[in-house]
Amino acid sequence: MGGLFIEELSLSHFRSHRAARFELDGRPVAIWGANGAGKTNILEAVSLLSPGRGLRRAAPDEIARKPESVGWKIRAGLTSLHQFHEVETWAEPGSSRSVKIDGKASAQVALGRIARVVWLIPAMDRLWIEGAEGRRRFLDRMVMSFEPRHAEAVLAYEKAMRERNRLLKDMVRDAHWYGALEAQMAEHGAAIMQNRQDALERLSRAQEGAETIFPAAELSLMASDKMPLPDDAEALLAAFRDGRPRDLGAGRTLIGPHRADLGAVYTAKGVAADQCSTGEQKALLISLILANGRALAEDFGAPPIYLLDEVAAHLDAGRRAALYDEICALGAQAFMTGTGPELFAEFGSRAAQIEVLDEGGTSVVKEH
């Protein structure tokens, strides 16, 4: 079988799991159990097979099982486009996260070249009505699924911006100190903006060609303060230079890709996402991650691994069945959590079933 899927997964001292091992066959995975049993911890482990801090954005020391705090480790056997890879990621106490791919030490960004992971978690339910930072993060995760090097551009931009902000806070007015930093910010910022725009165009095409009951969204990039958003290196460099007096007053950089916001309109109704009902907002999010999967299937050659935490609980039976049908039609391996097996009844034999139990503070896994 080609595509992208996890065949083997083992967790050691990861959150509530002292030790857990799964053998999988590429089908979607329905994970059910009581609240607090440790279901989401499995999804978080899978999310760490991609670059970054995972779906909870946790620091390495926050992940280790308590009270032992002996560090944690994840091992996975991953099939990606007909090639099998052994992936390990771990952290010792007080250390940053390490990665090995096929026995060789690797940078985190290398994970994005072999695995694409997309998630939807309950914290995202308020995405359209809260601050721009969450929407930027949501967008950049989708961008990284298309272009893993996007993470490097973001890190390089943010590093240069931190140094520029330090100069601003110290009220340094000599233009000589700013030139090289602003040139770096302009170069990497232009790459960030281009990657984001490319991703939006791919998502738009993927929505246009799809037959789905989930509503299409018209997406746009704007500045969070509604100011013009320069998107090429020359315009960004001029904006940083011209904006220094205002930035000195604020003590930080007030324009650039770090101020971008993701706008969405429910296409069929012409209504902005933040004005839609809670159910419509959730449906728009599901629509976008499904479009992400369709675009990746064409672009990367396989749909992403999906992590859908408690997504079934907020859908009626009809929409649940439609979501499961779309996941299976894509050929995607989706890890989904819920409180009981009845939430996954529409899958039938198309999904593996895993129950998670809490036994005295330790998660225990039973395959059905």
Topology:
Elements: E1 4-14, E2 17-23, E3 29-32, H1 39-47, H2 60-63, E4 72-80, E5 83-91, E6 98-101, E7 104-105, H3 111-114, E8 117-120, H4 132-146, H5 150-169, H6 179-208, E9 217-223, H7 233-242, H8 244-250, E10 260-266, E11 271-272, H9 278-299, E12 305-308, H10 317-330, E13 334-338, E14 352-359, E15 362-367
Parallel strand pairs: 3-13, 3-14, 8-12, 12-13
Antiparallel strand pairs: 1-2, 1-4, 4-5, 5-6, 6-7, 9-10, 10-11, 14-15
How does this structure look, described?
The protein is of the alpha/beta class and 368 residues long. The chain folds into 2 domains: 1-116 and 301-368, P-loop containing nucleotide triphosphate hydrolases (Rossmann fold, 3-Layer(aba) Sandwich), CATH 3.40.50.300; 129-299, RecF/RecN/SMC, N-terminal domain (Glutathione S-transferase Yfyf (Class Pi), Chain A, domain 2), CATH 1.20.1050.90. The protein contains 10 helices and 15 strands. It has helices spanning 39-47, 60-63, 111-114, 132-146, 150-169, 179-208, 233-242, 244-250, 278-299, 317-330, and strands at 4-14, 17-23, 29-32, 72-80, 83-91, 98-101, 104-105, 117-120, 217-223, 260-266, 271-272, 305-308, 334-338, 352-359, 362-367. The strands form 3 sheets. The chain has a 6-stranded antiparallel beta sheet. A 6-stranded mixed beta sheet has the order 8-12-13-3-14-15, sandwiched between helices. β4 and β5 (83-91) form a beta hairpin. α5 (150-169) packs antiparallel against α6 (179-208), α6 (179-208) crosses α9 (278-299) and α9 (278-299) runs parallel beside α10. It starts with a strand and ends with a strand.
